[in-house]
Amino acid sequence: MNEIVVAPIQLEEAPYEPVAGDPLIRRNLSMLGHVNVRLEVLLGTAEMSVEKLFSLSKGDTVTLDTHLDAPVTLQLDGKSIARGQLMAVGDSFGLKITEIL
Length: 101
Prior knowledge:
By secondary structure, this protein is mainly beta. It has one helix spanning 50-55, and strands spanning 39-42, 72-76, 79-89, 92-100. It has a domain at 23-47 and 65-101: Roll (Surface presentation of antigens (SPOA)), CATH 2.30.330.
C-alpha cells in the first residue's frame, strides 16, 4: 500500500501597501479576466417613516446623510472596496478613486 505523506507549508505574505497608480487587485487574472462584475456607488442613505415613503411623489426630494463634496463608496457585491469623488465624464457620472479599502 502506498502511503502519501502531506507536510504543511508555511507561506509568508508580505503586507501590501498600495501605491498611487497600482491596480486594485494584483493577481494573475488569465482565467478570470473576461468575467464581468457589477459595481455600485453608494452616495448616502436616508431614513424616513413608511408613511413618508408612501407619500413620495414625482418631484419630491429625498435628502441624503452625505455632504455634497464627501467621498462616495464603491461597492462590489455589497462590500466596500474603494472611495472616491464623483465627477462628470462626458454626459455621464464617473468616479475618481481616492482610496482603496
